């Protein structure tokens, strides 16, 4: 079998493991599966490669202690299960990593942590420091505080964003299925794709949701989306089963390899483009639309003709050209109620009329992504 240099040459790898790969048939965390995974990760560390683990399983781990038979539907119950389960999950990782002389560091992230500039910087710095100290970060979504609106809901995309945040050289997605198939793997005659070089290879592939175990979320849809985000940012992705973890991480050609398709771009922006629901629309005049699209300029109030929606400062909004096309998405610096007072005014006028702070740009170029 050929060896994948994308794997063997990677100095930093993000590994994501899904709930379905950590649970027993009866539900709850399977300590054996955690142990086997940690043994593999310790092997990767032993050859000098840094590892960040993104682990699902908090909700699954909380089911048994709460006497629940299956993943609850309601958000509050899921949050409660995650609250109970996350501690147990990280405890398992801490114990297993300690057998190899390694230290686990829990990192719980919300959508805000990868979209808002200040939060993003914090998360980035924390992860960088943990890696510097030789700690193995164990990341999960902060399920207990995430609401429907500000929730990834799945860890696949979170893992892709973490991979970019830590400038990983490779993302490995471990699931209960050994690769991406051209149809749902339960259907006879479906075949595994060994390599995906771009969108063309995905044409005609039936990408289904949740697997048979019923503990995961998102199924293949979110994994392919995660692969798009990572590869579009220059990071190759290997998708395979947790049982293949050892082979995948030593570079064997198992599962599906998604080749890098793009150059690295800032994480938050990819998230904005791919997964954020805009909370409103800013209407731009022709000059502003041109400046944003062709020159990568920040959006100034002078180029605004109106707005729609009930957004607050910091929310994602679409920037719409005079023809009604959404040309960009960005994080707005004003509440919707403030915008009418700003329309068409230069920064100097705003400063004069409203004082300090109102001369700021409406959407900063660093918080903008073209659609
Ligand atoms: N085209 C496909 N190729 C492979 N698996 C698929 C496909 N379509 C749907 N699936 C399902 O996606 C499941 C994996 O997703 P999920 O259950 O969310 O796992 P995880 O907990 O690892 O995130 C597989 O078990 C499989 O049944
Ligand atoms: N944050 C959640 C993960 C959600 C989930 O089930 O994700 P996944 O199994 O990766 O599809 C948890 O820890 O239970």
Report on this model:
With 371 residues, the protein is α/β, with parallel strands linked by helices. The protein has two domains: 5-266, Acetylglutamate kinase-like (Carbamate kinase, 3-Layer(aba) Sandwich), CATH 3.40.1160.10; 277-370, Archaeosine Trna-guanine Transglycosylase, Chain: A, domain 4 (Roll). Helix content is 36%, strand content 19%. The protein is built from 13 helices and 13 strands. The protein has helices at 5-8, 31-46, 58-63, 75-99, 111-115, 117-132, 155-165, 199-202, 219-232, 245-250, 267-275, 286-295, 347-354; strands at 12-17, 50-55, 104-109, 136-141, 170-175, 195-196, 237-241, 256-258, 280-284, 304-309, 316-320, 326-332, 363-370. The protein has an eight-stranded mixed beta sheet with strand order 3-4-2-1-5-7-8-6, sandwiched between helices. A five-stranded mixed beta sheet has the order 10-9-11-12-13. Helix 2 links the parallel strand 1 (12-17) and strand 2. Helix 7 packs antiparallel against helix 11. The longest helix has 25 residues, at 75-99. The radius of gyration is 22 Å and the shape is globular. The chain starts with a helix and ends with a strand. The model has no long low-confidence stretch (mean pLDDT 89). Adenosine-5'-diphosphate (ADP) binds at residues 18-21, 175-177, 180-181, 183-185, 206-208, 210-212, 216-220.
């Amino acid at each position: 079998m050929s060896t994948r240099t994308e794997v063997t040459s990677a100095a930093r790898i993000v590994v994501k493991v899904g709930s379905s790969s950590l649970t027993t048939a009866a539900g709850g965390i399977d300590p054996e599966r955690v142990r086997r995974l940690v043994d593999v990760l310790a092997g990767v560390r032993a050859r000098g490669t840094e590892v960040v683990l993104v682990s699902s399983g908090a909700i699954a781990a909380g089911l048994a202690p709460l006497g629940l038979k299956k993943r609850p539907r309601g958000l509050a119950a899921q949050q409660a299960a995650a609250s109970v389960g996350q501690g147990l999950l990280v405890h398992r990782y801490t114990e297993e990593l300690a057998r190899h002389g390694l230290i686990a560091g829990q990192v719980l992230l919300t959508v805000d942590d990868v979209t808002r500039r200040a939060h993003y910087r914090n998360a980035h710095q924390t992860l960088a420091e943990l890696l510097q100290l030789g700690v193995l970060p164990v990341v999960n979504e902060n399920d207990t505080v995430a609401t429907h609106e500000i929730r990834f809901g799945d860890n696949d995309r979170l893992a892709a964003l973490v991979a970019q945040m830590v400038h990983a050289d490779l993302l490995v997605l471990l699931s209960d299925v050994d690769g991406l198939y051209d149809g749902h793997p339960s259907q006879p005659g479906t075949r595994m794709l060994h390599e995906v070089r771009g969108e063309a290879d995905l044409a005609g592939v039936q990408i289904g949701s949740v697997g048979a175990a019923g503990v995961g979320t998102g199924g293949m849809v979110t994994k392919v989306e995660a692969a798009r985000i990572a590869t579009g940012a220059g990071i190759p992705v290997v998708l395979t089963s947790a049982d293949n973890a050892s082979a995948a991480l030593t570079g064997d050609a198992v599962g599906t390899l998604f080749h890098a398709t793009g150059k690295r771009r800032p994480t938050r922006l990819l998230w904005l483009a791919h997964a954020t629901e805009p909370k409103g629309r800013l209407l731009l005049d022709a000059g502003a639309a041109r400046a944003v699209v062709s020159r990568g300029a920040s959006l100034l109030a002078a180029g605004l003709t109106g707005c729609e929606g009930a957004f607050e400062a910091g929310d994602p909004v679409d920037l719409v050209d005079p023809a009604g096309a959404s040309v960009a998405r960005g994080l707005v610096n004003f509440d919707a109620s403030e915008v009418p007072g700003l329309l068409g005014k230069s920064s100097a006028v705003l400063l004069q009329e409203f004082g300090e702070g109102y001369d700021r740009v409406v959407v900063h170029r660093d918080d903008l992504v073209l659609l």
